[in-house]
Specification:
single chain; alpha+beta; about 130 residues
Length: about 130
């Protein structure tokens, strides 16, 4: 049996407006215990910095303070992988895709069993957020 590669994200496609998808994502993350500590508008950034037109694309930096604190106690460099990024992007045809990082996949390079368990806890919350959208 061949191994199916693990995806590095969870995602869902919605048939709603872009701004509504961002609003629902922020609300849904809040319901799972995450605060938004960064919000990056790539469309605006690309236009301003390199004069390129780009689709609606927002990166939300989500952080669950308790789980982030626990992870940092286990591995002090894990901050390089924080916050957990969630992408909201217009994929055309009136559809918006919301994708959240799978922290288990992103932390595979770190050999720490307890950190893997912490990542699974965060991943479960992010998966639940995506499923409830």
């Amino acid at each position: 049996e061949r191994e199916i590669p693990m995806s590095y994200y969870f995602s869902k496609t919605l048939s709603i407006g872009f701004n509504e998808a961002v609003r629902r994502s922020i609300e849904g993350l809040k319901n799972e215990g995450f605060g938004i500590i960064t919000e990056i508008d790539l469309k605006e950034t690309f236009k301003k910095k390199i004069d390129v037109d780009f689709r609606n694309y927002c990166i939300l930096g989500a952080c669950n303070p308790t789980l982030a604190y626990d992870a940092l106690k286990l591995e002090d460099k894990v901050g390089a992988m924080l916050p957990c990024n969630v992408v909201v992007q217009d994929i055309g045809g009136g559809r918006i895709e919301v994708a959240a990082i799978d922290p288990v996949a992103s932390m595979q390079a770190i050999d720490n069993t307890r950190l893997k368990q912490a990542a699974e806890q965060v991943g479960a919350k992010l998966r639940q957020f995506i499923e409830k959208l």
